[in-house]
Amino acid sequence: GQQLNQSPQSMFIQEGEDVSMNCTSSSIFNTWLWYKQDPGEGPVLLIALYKAGELTSNGRLTAQFGITRKDSFLNISASIPSDVGIYFCAGQMRNNQGGKLIFGQGTELSVKP
Amino acid sequence: DAGVTQSPTHLIKTRGQHVTLRCSPISGHKSVSWYQQVLGQGPQFIFQYYEKEERGRGNFPDRFSARQFPNYSSELNVNALLLGDSALYLCASSVTGNSPLHFGNGTRLTVT
User: Fold this and answer.
1) Section A39-51 average pLDDT
2) Other C-beta atoms lying within 10 Å of the C-beta of residue B25
């Protein structure tokens, strides 16, 4: 099925370091979302972006909606052990038929205390 | 406040059998979507319902069907199960068909 290109696939970092991950698509989206999934649970919404160029923060998380509407970035500052998990980007093309999400393959984050 | 609830949490079925998965959305949410997540991949869109009408269908065979009830809960049905149907099935709800999705913890289906 259709997926976005998300990178990196995995990251191993030291507690306190900053993290960056990104997502690119050949298609234009009018909404970008970032989710975090812990083992045995469903994805949890972190940040939603609605406008090209938009920069939004949620605590230590900052995400940006690319100007071309074909990409998005997520940054995590001063990582802590509970940041461990899989992060997914998702693009949404909202229209009158609803708004299905197209997901990236995920970035698995490991944080070493 | 209760989030999206799904039942059962785990299920083991045999090839050729039928399965029904259930989902209750967040109170006030009128749209329910279903996604399939195979191990190591992102979720794949199966269906979206809004106000009891189908608003979108992903690239899945006709063995997959769904419906939404007047109380906005939903069922996903899969007939003639194949080994490849083994996955985590996620339900998500949203206020409208275009709002951000909030996911449940999924039903882990294993087909043997």
Assistant:
1) 94
2) 27
